[in-house]
Design brief:
Tetracycline Repressor, domain 2, 195 residues, single chain, mainly alpha, 74% helix
């Protein structure tokens, strides 16, 4: 049976979406191609029809996941301070810690990207630059954007490694307060103007 171009593209997007969720929850390196295919409800052969191999799939997953994250930050109105603070600190939720499959790929997959081949690292770098550009619109500063990204990702990574939920909550609350201070320091600064 021959499939239409639209069906093939839809299958590829399902592979990327479900593969991304699976990889964020179980790790990409520890997931075999058969597991990634099963997560998408397709055969391993179908996976190889869409991607040249595991590295190609990983680069596509990283690109799609980081693009989704960049779009989410791009949708935040930097002139709405209260909304910006709420959106940025929502990242530091216990739900995000407990459900990596639904969240940002950075806390789950960054260490694997660091050991991946160049195509994966290139996809990661491009996605990070887009995320940084969108967060910079919110913070008004390139340095503050990197600070906010790194502290939030690091907090989620550490919280996931903690076994005590009380400690997880303490860590997340401390980092939410830190993010709020950083963002609220920008209250009197409007995009394009410097205080």
């Amino acid at each position: 049976m021959r499939y239409t171009k639209e069906y093939k593209e839809s299958a590829k997007q399902r592979l990327i979406a479900s593969g991304g969720s699976h990889a964020k929850q179980h790790g990409f390196g520890d997931s075999g191609m058969s597991e990634l295919a099963a997560a998408a409800g397709v055969t391993t052969g179908s996976l190889y029809k869409h991607f040249g191999g595991k590295a190609d799939l990983f680069a596509s997953l990283i690109s799609a996941e980081l693009n989704r994250t960049a779009q989410m930050y791009g949708a935040i109105d930097p002139t709405d301070r209260a909304g910006s603070v709420k959106s940025m600190t929502a990242y530091l939720s216990l739900q995000h810690v407990q459900h990596p499959e639904r969240g940002c790929p950075l806390p789950s997959l960054t260490s694997e990207v660091a050991r991946a081949d160049q195509s994966v690292r290139d996809a990661f770098q491009q996605g990070m630059q887009e995320i940084h550009a969108n967060v910079k619109k919110i913070t008004g500063s390139a340095d503050d954007a990197w600070t906010l990204i790194a502290q939030n990702v690091g907090a989620v990574m550490i919280a996931r490694a903690l076994s005590d939920e009380t400690l997880q909550r303490e860590l997340l609350a401390a980092l939410r307060r830190s993010a709020e201070r950083l963002l609220n320091d920008k209250t009197d600064v409007h995009p394009g103007h410097h205080a």
